[in-house]
Structures are given as C-alpha cells and as structure tokens.
Amino acid sequence: MPLIFVNYRTQDAPEAATLIERELSRVFGDENVFRASKSIGPGSRYPQQLLKAVRRSHVLLAVIGPRWLEARSVDGPGAPANPDDWTCREIREAFESGAVVIPVLVARAERLRAADLPPELDVLADCQYRRFDHRNADADLSRLVGDLIDLLPELAEAAEKNGYALKAPMRPDGDRAADERGSGNARVRADVINHRQRGGIGNLNGDFSGTFVSEPQGTVHTGSGHVYQASEQRFAPSFSGDAMDVNYVADNHGRIRQQSSRGERPADGDR
pTM to 2 decimals? Predict the structure, then answer.
C-alpha cells in the first residue's frame, strides 16, 4: 500500500496536486504515492479504495489552493462544513489513523484558521505547512521530498533505486555534512568545495584523502619519517642558514636528532 496519500479538491488546484504526485511518484515509485484519479482503477468502488488507502498511508498531503474553503458541495453548503465531503473525510481518517498530515499551500493560499473549519477538523489549522508555487516549483518539490525522507527514512532507499541523488543532511552551521558511505577509513568528501588557495592548489572537487596544509607558519612534516633540526645539514642535499637553524623534513627512519655545525653528539645520546 502507498506510504503517501495526496489529498485535494477537484474544484481547487487539481493541477498542483497532479504535479506534486507525479514528482513524488518519479522519486519514490508509483506504488508509494496515492492519488485517487490515478490510483483507483476502472470499475473499482472508490469509497472503499479511498478509505483503505488513507488508513494505511503514513503521510497525507492536503493540497490547499485559494478556493479550498469556497468550494461548494452538491446540495449547496460549503464543502468543509459538509460531513459527507470526501476531501475533509480523508483528512479526518488520516488523523484518526495516526498519519502525519502536511498542508501544502498552493500559490497565494493562506493558512487555514481553526474558526473556518468544522470542530472535528480544526486541528488541521495547527499543522505545520509547506508551500508550492509554480514559479519556485523545483525548490518547493525538492524540499517536500526531503521532508518526506526525514519522516519516512525507508523512502530514501526507494529514491536511490529510482536514480534520485539524495542531498547530504545539513549541519548546524548551515553547510552540508560530509557523507562518505561504505568506507572504513576517515575521508573528506569535497562535494561542494570551490576554495581558491594560494600556492597552486586551485579548485578542489571530488574526493581526496591525505593531509591538506593551508599556509603553514613554521615546520610542517606530513610524511611517515622523522624531523631533523640542524644549524647546517650534513647530508645530501645540503642546506645552510646563515647562522640560523634550518628545518629539514624528510621521509627518514630513526629517532629525532639535533645536530650542530661543530659535529656535536646527537641530543638523545645515540650515535
């Protein structure tokens, strides 16, 4: 059964409901998203199919356009006040079954007020909403996809299976967290790095591992050997420093030694 139920009025923003459902079906798979006109086959008894689907769904998206409250029922009264209004009945069923209900406000639709809703539905006014605007459709749909994955982590596997590139979670500082899966070693994932570094580093993109040194101020040793300090180095290649110490970094093996130009014994007592 579907995990996501798309609830809407045929008299109010049906195009937005269709766009939302199609994108979610593309990302999560058709079987995980229910929309009545798509999911109920010819000859099926729609009341039973609707109730069965909404009761088994984990999330109901209530698509609400500018005319949602103004819709009229067949016998005249406003649809929200009609106990037989199917749109409201689906929402009530979702609340009763414990599903998460997310109002999706379309375009300039205003947030519903409890005073405008029947008592058995006034809780809808307290639900945190999302917006969908055709001028910002890609960003709005992407945010909705992220919300649904946060609510239902099992949808992440379905999204990856359908070729959807999941975004890394946000860190508290607002940057995307590194996400390197399937690796037993600590690595840095340079997903979005475009940092200009003096000294020929340039732009970094992709994966890199190892040691990154930015503008060091003093001795730096990044190899697997040891650091030697001498006033004048006696091994090739030779370095001199005008009576000043010279730092020599190499991939040597042994202990850390200190040697002067006068050939004094090593500081640690070893020859």
Answer: 0.61
